[in-house]
Give the backbone structure.
Amino acid sequence: MASKTIHMKYYPWLVNPYKIIIKQHQTKKTHHAFLIKTIKGLGVCELILKISKWLLCNQKNGIKYCKKCHSCQLMLCGNHPDWHQCIKNKDDIITIDHIRKINEKIFKYPNQGKNKIIFLSNIQKMTESAKNALLKTLEEPPKKTWFFLIDYNNLRVNSTLHSRCLIYTLFPPLEKKSLNWLKNQNLSNKILNLISLRINQGSPISAKKFINNGLLEERKNLFLYFLKSIKNQNLLRMLPILSVKNTILKIDWICLLLFDAIQLYFNQKKKLTNFDQFELIQFFSSNYHYLTLHQSIYTWTKCRYRLLNVPGINSELLLLEQLLKWEKILSFVI
Ligand SMILES: [Zn+2]
């Protein structure tokens, strides 16, 4: 019932988190700085938007916002004066100037007892000085000012910023539920849906994009080339397909396949990501020690890092070097 009234029919996995977070506000068991740890492709910004609508609504009814009051209308048009999204795009950098602007808005103009919301959509994109400035703001913010922060990097050790926030983890939905959702999006091939889900860390939205953007096809082609190159003991044949486009993604797919091989090496067959590529997975798990597979993943990760972080690097040359190195690791050449 509630899912209908709060219009979350497309992202059913957000219904419960919405309820939980609103409950925390209703029972005043929340914190002015709320940090959500999650992965991309779960619609977390949508979740924050809905919570904000509820917080700002003048005539809320239980966990629902009214969609009719002046506040709701302003939110609908995207220009509520008490709703501040620091940056429009979550890949933009958040600088100290952004934080200064926020401070100006929340400290200079008294809000007459109304809620104010600050939304920082990706804390990994904050500069160090922006982080420090925000930490100061979080120490003693004006009353009824709510900060929502998102952290997409679950691996990183918690920072000072984390310690100043109430942390909530938004997990991907269960596979079964995601598969249902994908089916409702007119994607009927269950096997391909499942592979796409696993490649995308269980994110249904990313899986849908993955399929609709033709990446599933690209992946199939890559592995076809891969298998041929392995059979010919000539990995250099992969160079054209690796360098033509989506290089980083393709490196990720190779690494995921190697992880599968390690899993199979230890007889863990159930949760393989690339279960349609069994021949390749088996080749690696039966011919190599898992440490060799680890080493392979390590060199690929390093190559990936350099491709992303070394400015002006010759990517084709780097890939060539990596493939030659990998041939050595796999003992294709002596
Ligand atoms: Zn309203």
